[in-house]
Amino acid sequence: MYKEKIFRLFLILGILLVTLACSISLNNGDDETEALKTQLTQQSMQTTAPAGHNKPVPVPDSGGQQGTGDGSSNSSSSDDKGVYALKFLSEDSPGGTNYLPGDSFTKSWTIRNDGDFEWTKDFTIDFSSGERMGGAYSTKLGRAVAPGETIILTVTLTAPDNAGDYTGNWQISTDKGAQIGLIPVKITVLAVLAPQPQAGPGFLEIVDASFPWAYDDVSLTCPDTVNVTANITTNGAGTLSCTWSNSSQADGDQITQSVTFAGAETQTLSYVVGPIGYSDIYEVDFYCEWEGSRWDYGLMPLYVNCR
Fold this sequence. Notes:
It is a single chain. By secondary structure, this protein is mainly beta. Helices cover 15% and strands 46% of the residues. A hairpin with a 5-residue loop joins strand 9 (164-173) and strand 10 (179-189).
């Protein structure tokens, strides 16, 4: 009877040990399962992470440019340690310089290499946008320009055939095609002054008229006046009635002059514009009449700069 109790006790103890071992094994399995789930979740998050979270990749030199608003202009470089840049210093003639249709002219700029890299002789001056005005599309720089060094750039251009305001943009380009700055050319092409007088009855005609001051820039210490002239040539004798007016006067205010020609000759008529109080473009109107015939020369601009 005693041996039977001992056997039952060991049997119960064995059953308890087996049960405990199974419990521990199952718990460990749960932990491994949870760890595997966590690892898969992390991998999924990494795969679907936004592109902005990725490490930046250096962008090669693509020629993008950005103006600084102070006369200088920069262009990005593929080297993170510096940039290409230029500084505009001066030009040979200011924007809006006047030319007649078809005039050839040169445009020059003085600029400084304001970046961190040398410009090589293979860098080019390139037409970028706007009105090309007959200039070359691309010209090599011709020499190296070190950082901080200045250079004078020159292009040969031709004024367009039609009157108006024109702008052409030029740029420095690296040997890889990157743009460094944007340099404008601004001009005004004047209308050709070529009046066609009407033939009047009889023998008197104006065969030539010139206005030496027309389209000129005049500098004044304002307020002041400007004396303008008209050189009138006739084919014979007679008396002309010539009328002047200008935009600085009150509406309807005008001056009429009578001038007598003894024969085929040239006479000069004078007229005072003003007083002028500020810088502006003043338009002067001039025409002459004789026995029902009229020679009208229209409105001619006078550019006044007050000092």
